[in-house]
Queue: 2 jobs
Job 1
Amino acid sequence: MKIHEYQGKEILEGYGVRVQRGILVDTPDAAGQAFQSWGGTAAVIKAQVHAGGRGKGGGVKFVTSLSEAESVADAMLGMQLVTHQTGPEGQKVRKLMICEALDLAAEYYVGIALDRALGRPVLMVSAEGGVEIETLALERPEALLKLPIDPAAGLQAYQARRAAFFLGLDAGQVRQAVPFLLGLAQAYLENDCELAEINPLVLTEQGDVVALDAKMTFDSSALFRHADIAEMRDEHEEDAKEVEASRFGLNYITLDGEIGCMVNGAGLAMATMDTIKAHGSSPANFLDVGGSATEEAITEAFRIILSDSKVKGILVNIFGGIMKCDIIARGVIAAAKNVRIEIPLVVRLEGTNVEAGRTLLAESGLDLIAASSLDEGASLICTAVTSNKPS
Ligand code: GDP
Ligand code: MN
């Protein structure tokens, strides 16, 4: 799960990490007041969306007068901010952070991410701030220091000192950077983060070490033990269909293709998507209805798939294990009665009680195409969709 910069900074402050302070606003008037409260001479206005690269996209602006603060806030609120991390349609800006303006002497990169190969979090630092870390890691790996963190012991002070010296900080700055890095690592571990990135970490003209930005993402499977963080979820920033699906316990992700998929089990869902590709079309979604989907959840799954205008056909591919095929068939029949399906529907069932399930479908009078294997199912839906197209 992602959160906003202002929320990330709030969490980090609780761990003693020094952050660029800001005031959250959602009107130009409030932006003006916040500007005045920073002294009335300068502030930085920052769009709060769940995407990086805001600066380059026009979502971070330096302002130097009250009227400028109000007019920039007015223009930014409600705009669709497009960055390299949003889609081409961008993200709507609903809130702004009006930040204190700092005089920067240097910008650095600091991040903690899970290294799946090492099986532990890794602290990464670079003196080249503001750059994209993925590019740096590929093109100039020597400019990036990586230190694995023992998840039980946490980041060690000697590691934090080594990172600070790698950045070229002097002794006084190192004394500030060490508690900064230790706090960041503690925040990462205690909150089950996937990523905690400070890009840039800055050294001010006054010699202070400050987090100018904060990007934190969390392991969704661990949110049950972090109610305070779960509350920070902002559904406006997420795909509406995915939010709806998660309410019904469905794992749904929107994709670009034209075949809607309804599958149980993540592995089978991926195999289904691959098989559709192999037959020349492409999936409109990933959908794992889970091992114990109810009739209601299956109806909802149909509704979500059909609400996507890209979808030209649906392939249901269910392997009955714990879940019995006759129950799934009943779910499909009930769903088809509740939701009008006017595009080709191919159903492939296999596993426990498969005969009962197939009989139910055959006797239901539904206009569906039955398949007896995944390969056949994928082939049938791809053909049906292609022959349905106006030539
Ligand atoms: P991002 O583009 O979404 O990563 O947004 P950031 O919060 O990282 O801001 C982008 C850039 O704006 C930073 O890398 C800084 O160069 C600049 N910036 C932000 N706040 C200040 C500030 O107080 N003073 C100065 N001089 N630059 C700032
Ligand atoms: Mn940034």
Job 2
Amino acid sequence: MDDIGKRFTNLFGGNPEVITTAPGRVNLIGEHIDYSDGFVLPFAIKNVTTVAMARRNDNMIRISSLQKAGEVVSIDLTSLAPQVGESWTRYVLGVLWVLKVDRGLDILIDGRVPLGAGLSSSAALECAVAIAVDHLFEKNLDQAQLALAAQKAENDYVGMPCGIMDQSVSLMAKAGSALLLDCRDLSTTNIPFDIAPQGLELLIIDTQAHHKLVDGGYAERRASCELAVKVLGITSLRDISVSDYVARKSELDPTTYIRGFHAVTEMQRVLDAVQALKENNFSKLGKLLNESHKSLRDDYNVSCPELNLAVDTALEHGALGARMVGGGFGGSAIALIKADHLDAIQSAIASAFDAGHFKAPRFFTSLPGDGAQVIAS
Ligand code: GLA
């Protein structure tokens, strides 16, 4: 924190008025259903993005990142409009635009959530900026309002039609728990996820794969779910049981049906996973992770060879369960493993990637951390 403060002063002159942090996330289960009003069960990881910010006496926004070696991007507040600004700055500018910031700012970013790993570095950046603006301009927005503002920035300014999960967990997470988030009304319940005393660990495997489908594929899956809702004449896929959905199969074209089938079955798996956690039944949780992966791979068709190899290898070497996380087409997988299997599973996955001529994966472990915070002002 001191470090970013000093660097801010060296770069911009003056001290930051506020320093905030916001974490990335993994999602235990509940994938691709936040935009269908589902329940999801993510938690915040320990990697955070830190933002130092101070107001200026003019209309200039100046943004720099410690990961961009001193580069300072300047833009006049009055020119903010969707898609304006260098691509990495749009997550920041979008939040300023949505929150109607009316005064220039100096902003320094230290992004420690791995980029492009499917761990929501973009939501972490949006949320760290959102709470800094909220604090400086005394907007007194609650966490749900801030999450919606950050999502709107990503939807309307950046142009990515994401759901509400990543921003919500980055803001609302509590250490030691996974966050059961109802994406319909943004109400939350903390579900204790204390696996260390059970001798377990959650391994995060960043496949370092980024397939081209990432943007178009996401929007297309979301559109299929919206089409299913329209054809079936329901409010959302949240409002239909698996058996009712299956009974109405003939009303939907095959692709729309199978995409919606993922959504309705995944919604049930989240509720079952919460029950498994309440019972400390980790083998049941592991099976649900496996079913989620199969559904994402075969029905929703958002996995990729690297994610499948990471999951299969983890399972072959004793993982209780494993699945891809996030939007898919690359990014990360998680594996619920016995802590004393950690080294063996990591090296088995690394060897399998090597043999498959894939880029070397990166490994992380993280217990559930806290959500976004003002750490100095
Ligand atoms: C991305 C989006 C989220 C969510 C996940 C899939 O991370 O930002 O809103 O849809 O994909 O669960």
